[in-house]
Amino acid sequence: MAKSAFFTSLLLILALVSSLSFARELVQSSSYRVLDVASFLRSVDPALSKDAVLKPNDGLVSGEGLSLSLMHRDAPSSAFRPQNSTWSQRLAARMRRDSIRVKAVLSKLRFIKGGFDLSDLKPVVTQGQTISVEDLQSPLASGLDEGSGEYFVSVGVGTPSRTINLVADTGSDVVWQQCSPCSNCYQQVDPLFNPAASSSFQQLSCSSQLCSQLRTRGCQSNQCLYQVLYGDGSFTVGVFSTETLQFGSNSVQNVAIGCGHNNQGLFVGASGLLGLGGGPLSFPTQVGSQYGSVFSYCLPDRLTSQASALIFGPSAVPAGSIFAPLVSNPVTDTFYYVGLTGIRVGGVPISVSSGAFQLDSSGNGGVILDSGTAVTRLVSSAYNAMSDAFRANTGSLPAASSVLIFDTCYDLSGHQSVRLPAVDLEFEGGAVVPLPANNLLVQTDDSGTFCLAFAPSDDNLSIIGNIQQQSLRISFDKQQGRVGFASNQCN
Q1: Catalytic residue (one of 74, 98, 169, 173)
Q2: Whole-prediction pTM value?
Q3: Is there a catalytic annotation at residue 445?
Q4: For domain 66-309, is the CATH number 2.40.128.130?
């Protein structure tokens, strides 16, 4: 009996050790990470092999559930990458998009809380208001001349199905595409979708439940009209409908999707947007009952031509993931707030106030995970403490001048590899997520200048951006109220 109990205990210990393998990988005892500078520099404009390139519209197999291939807009094989552009030009464009994105997120939160106010733009409606057809047909003009989408997926839409490219965005809810006839549409890579050619396209009535869930809606001849106004002044306006979406061999029927006949300024090149936010009209929420209210992604970086999988369903969460709780914002369910409690640099916690990352009862502050923001923004006190600690641990590296929004830069042109202080994110519940070395610095030119890929926030909101999320499979489980992190699970 004693021997049996011993072996039982041993098996339990072995199972525990196995389940904690990812945690051991994440919570490293070392206080530094090694950045392969030479490999990074060789990858600035890699020679492409047709056999190695996974095109954005190729399907990926993920087992149970739905799966789409996900690709960065600046990937060498991306149809949305500017031709004949230099590394510095693409970075500058990315930072312009990033600045616009952060302002749009902040503006959206102010709008939701009733305080939308931009110097050049005024809202045409208030939250939840039913507006006139004339208002819907005369939206705000946008000053945005570049697309702000960072990651794209290819989805089949309609019957018969045709493939379109959509921006994948965790900071938006409504799914929409540009449609013909189009009174005002931006240029896109794919032909415009013609709803008359699809037998599964169904317009929604004004009294439908889906129509009532729109924040901004109109009605014409009992036809539900929608408008989505983004914080930078960009917009999409059109008919709210249901349609069939195709994911490889799997199809999802009756997905609520906007058919935009008047769109301007946002996501140039893409056909529309796949809303991955937490609101009632987002795609994950719409398919939640069928696929467990869970989805995950692993964001491929802009240097690779390979896509990774955006997965919906039970297979979205890899074994060995570690979890942190999602935090509920009382004023909005779109953004994914997480309970960040601290940051370690070189194995040592930085000194920040206890409330630096907290979300208050009025919906102010907090930390969101956002696929559309590139560079992580931290409240100023946390950023200053973090960057000071990082510089203190990199005193032997040659400093370089500030670049764009980055104030902690290095000249690594003479280095094959460098040791960087480890940066670990600490979350409520004890989860500790170390950032890979490639997620700590951003390359700013083709000659070896690298900068710390963090910046101070102009607001009390912090945002964990996509540079810091790259190469981690991040799962969002609304049913259990948690977000998961796993490494080496991108394909």
Answers
A1: 169
A2: 0.82
A3: no
A4: no
